[in-house]
Amino acid sequence: MKPKVYVTRKFHFSASHRVYNPMWSDEENKIIFGKCSNPGGHGHNYELEVTVAGSPDTHTGYVIDIGKLKEMIEKEVIEQLDHRNLNTDVPFLQGRIPSSENLIVALWDHIACLLPPEVELVRLRLWETPRNCFEYYGEKL
Amino acid sequence: MKPKVYVTRKFHFSASHRVYNPMWSDEENKIIFGKCSNPGGHGHNYELEVTVAGSPDTHTGYVIDIGKLKEMIEKEVIEQLDHRNLNTDVPFLQGRIPSSENLIVALWDHIACLLPPEVELVRLRLWETPRNCFEYYGEKL
Amino acid sequence: MKPKVYVTRKFHFSASHRVYNPMWSDEENKIIFGKCSNPGGHGHNYELEVTVAGSPDTHTGYVIDIGKLKEMIEKEVIEQLDHRNLNTDVPFLQGRIPSSENLIVALWDHIACLLPPEVELVRLRLWETPRNCFEYYGEKL
Amino acid sequence: MKPKVYVTRKFHFSASHRVYNPMWSDEENKIIFGKCSNPGGHGHNYELEVTVAGSPDTHTGYVIDIGKLKEMIEKEVIEQLDHRNLNTDVPFLQGRIPSSENLIVALWDHIACLLPPEVELVRLRLWETPRNCFEYYGEKL
Amino acid sequence: MKPKVYVTRKFHFSASHRVYNPMWSDEENKIIFGKCSNPGGHGHNYELEVTVAGSPDTHTGYVIDIGKLKEMIEKEVIEQLDHRNLNTDVPFLQGRIPSSENLIVALWDHIACLLPPEVELVRLRLWETPRNCFEYYGEKL
Amino acid sequence: MKPKVYVTRKFHFSASHRVYNPMWSDEENKIIFGKCSNPGGHGHNYELEVTVAGSPDTHTGYVIDIGKLKEMIEKEVIEQLDHRNLNTDVPFLQGRIPSSENLIVALWDHIACLLPPEVELVRLRLWETPRNCFEYYGEKL
């Protein structure tokens, strides 16, 4: 039996979004979403924490090469989000309201596919502001 | 089946307390609690993280309107703690030693009652200083 | 002679912007501004630090009532920036490229007018991301 | 000519205070100071930054041994403030309203006397909360 | 039944290490570990969070006296790591590659032995940089 | 006359060093430098803030393209420091004790030469730990 260690890398991206339901009028959106549905949109510096779990390799002492994890997520995920408009520019968000809840669930499938077999994705944590945070563990209700 | 997402909002309040057992003498309190039982009291900038879990609503993309969560907790909880003396000024701490452990357990019941039915309270995290942190998940031993 | 003390209050707002020169084509803008000129825009969580200087009042011990400073700046400044599009929604930025440099200079005049006579505005500091910061002291070159 | 380098050490202490003028009634204090004059008091985790300037010594490369600076300030200053009531427990604040403005000015004289001759005290910075900051450079108006 | 509360204390230490497998040549190490195997080594400011769980004592309101936990861990653990070379200076790391994964697993056994019976060790969290984090819960795979 | 705006970019690197004077014995070094002269060395996560000043360009709204500043400093400065041993691996520190004071003075000349003519270097700030900070403004005593 080998120890199970959790490894987290934190990423940063800046993006804009408008939280609104396109089926509703601007007025209805304002009642439900308040200033978050302002038609010009607004934006955030998002912090994304990706956590994987596995056992340290006997020869390297690593669960995963965190430098390679960093490069892969930056190229395949952050590049698609950084300095983008989440309503219009991100293929895997098309047709979804870009709330942080929907974003984190969409990111789960996107990231899980990228990982090497020796680790499993166990947690995503997304800070929308320094005071608002969203977590997803792949659980269903 | 729908994804279960965890939503956290961070709050801030400044309060004073004296950690001591009123059944004991000042000397006995000093032996057990050290400088924390200094009769004049001391204080902290507390950070409180409230985490709820639920599924994103199909029409809004939200688990909960985090703006409304913020307003409710600020009005019903933070108002009672901010710029207060935890030994004398807080109704739901009456008769308890205001350690962070007792505070977080008292906050659980207080906050759980306030939440709408579509979410459940899953974690409270209380930072007493940037180096001391307390968590409660509603578990019993 | 009385001591001169500097008092700083930190504010937070989330906004979107597109950095581009409307006199240029999208291609020219891309050459000069790179991803910052992406037509859909992007956004940030800005932190704004407002610093004023003065002498502590003999009767209150305050240079300024920081609670009142907070309320005034939030109402007169942050309300106009938070959850807005800096290209289209902010009256005092009309006709300017919404770079952080131009934003901080525009904010100086706006804030200086609001302050009571017993203090002077001495520094604005604007964090665009946790790694990019802009300061203005009202100096001219 | 030798380079002038600024060296800063950050300290932490937790204290309680009540901001009020003892010449006034509780009601008058409440009008002027609001919740900060709540009779039970409140408290903060203060961060104090002490900055000295001097030239790096040829033999050590140090402006000052920051480990010794730390020990001296902790023993002579922080010990008197940590887990104390600023209204009643701190000798050098006797008779002053314990606002952060008055505290930082009192600390200046206290700290300046402690420093070795090869450095000069150039700045004190006191964070009362993560959003409220006070600075003093020894200047008079 | 009594509430189960989690108490965390954060520690800091500065250390150097070189991540390499002594069975391999410098070139092989460079291929696998990149700049982390630079022969001169490099270093980090590590943050270590120790989390224990238990029930608040009826007489003190404490799960554990966090001041005593702090002193014990600083004396028995941090003293052995702070301002050390993790490859050569730390007895409990002898013969292991000093990756953060191996360090956190070695720390688990070391810390678990030190704790009083009324609490159990439930989580170690080690920040190697502000962006790289490692967690261990004592789990085996 | 045009406004003078200060632009800061924050960089990160991890390095090891041993603070000692090679003219002295290990014992003499231990008396002067304490644990900082431990022969195996130790290390830090350094944060370096580079501040330049200038006027916003009329056509771009920028004092400097902060993205290009970032790339230049990362390539010419951070590459030489990150994951290095400051005693042995950094050409511009050869023959100097790698204290943070000496490092920041050496960095000044190195960085000043790299900057385009439209800005001037006005401040370097180096965090050695979250509690120890060094600043240099190019001043001489």
Describe the structure.
The structure is a homohexamer of 141-residue chains. With 141 residues, the first copy, chain A, is an alpha+beta fold. Chain A has a single domain (5-136), classed as Tetrahydropterin Synthase, Chain A, CATH 3.30.479.10. Chain A is 26% helix and 35% strand. Chain A contains 3 helices and 5 strands. The first copy, chain A, has helices spanning 26-33, 66-81, 100-112, and strands at 3-17, 42-54, 84-85, 120-129, 132-140. The first copy, chain A, starts with a strand and ends with a strand. At the E-F interface, strand 1, strand 2 and strand 3 of E face strand 1, strand 2 and strand 3 of F.
In short:
The structure is a homohexamer of 141-residue chains. Chain A contains 3 helices and 5 strands; from the N terminus they run E-H-E-H-E-H-E-E.
What is the architecture of chain A at the second tier of CATH? 2-Layer Sandwich
Query: If you average the pLDDT of chain A, what whole number results?
Result: 97
Number of self-contained structural domains of chain A: 1
CATH topology annotation of chain A: Tetrahydropterin Synthase, Chain A
* Annotation field: number of helices of chain A: 3
What would the principal axes of the Cα set say about the shape of chain A? elongated
| Side-by-side strand order of the widest sheet of chain A | 3-1-2-4-5
Determine the structural class of chain A based on helices, strands and strand pairing: alpha+beta
N-to-C order of helices and strands of chain A? EHEHEHEE
Task: Give the terminus-to-terminus CA distance of chain A.
Answer: 32 Å
